[in-house]
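Course exercise 7: structure representation. Students receive a sequence record and must write out the corresponding structure in token form. The form below is the worked example handed out in class, using peptide chain release factor N(5)-glutamine methyltransferase (233 residues). Read each field label carefully; the graders check that inputs and outputs are placed in the correct fields and that the protein name is recorded exactly as given.

STUDENT ID: A-19
EXERCISE PROTEIN: peptide chain release factor N(5)-glutamine methyltransferase
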Amino acid sequence: MEEEVPQEIVQKYMSMLEALEELPLQYLIGEWDFMGRTFKVEEGILIPRPETELLVEKVLSLLEKDKDLLGFEIGVGTGCISISLLLERPRLRMYASDVQQKAIELARKNAQRYGVQDRLFLVLGDMFEPVKDMVFDFVVSNPPYIPKRMWEKLDPKVRKEGYLSLIGGEKGTEFYERFSKEVGKHLKEGGFFALEIGHDQGKVVRKLFEKEGFRVEVYKDLSGQDRLVVGWK
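STUDENT ANSWER:
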């Protein structure tokens, strides 16, 4: 208690307090926790959220522990989904894509932090384009699903996570429409997909996938809202 705080630390603290009016705390700190692990975060890339932990837990419940498996994540962001899966399933290999080079580099840093860079293959591109000839045991994604009309209504701090990370088109369901028509070609027989969805999108998304012949289940989050959709080939 007798020690005096150095002036440069006081100045840094005060400047961070000012910045907190515009930036999310996570970006100021430069990292955030997900499933008990800490991941580097950067402005413009989606911040890991507790709801997405449910997605990882659901996928893990469907993956055998002692089997060689190949998965694919669309929209890798920080890498928290793929890296968490790799750490829990030592015989798993993951491909993961993103449309932002910044996200690819960030995910690479986080993979190196946890020593899974040799089992995570990061590719730049949209949807299935970077892996067009490949098939997987499962596909996972937390895609952008907020309707375009909601952009201006979002908290300014949330908007710092980036339009590409949050907005899913005019209706918000455009990703699921495209995904439902393409995912079947990239799943092994008996394979599955698992996606995060908006709280009011369960019925719409279920119909999209059932129309394409998938067996579908919608799961709720801890607040009782629709949050995940899982489908089997």
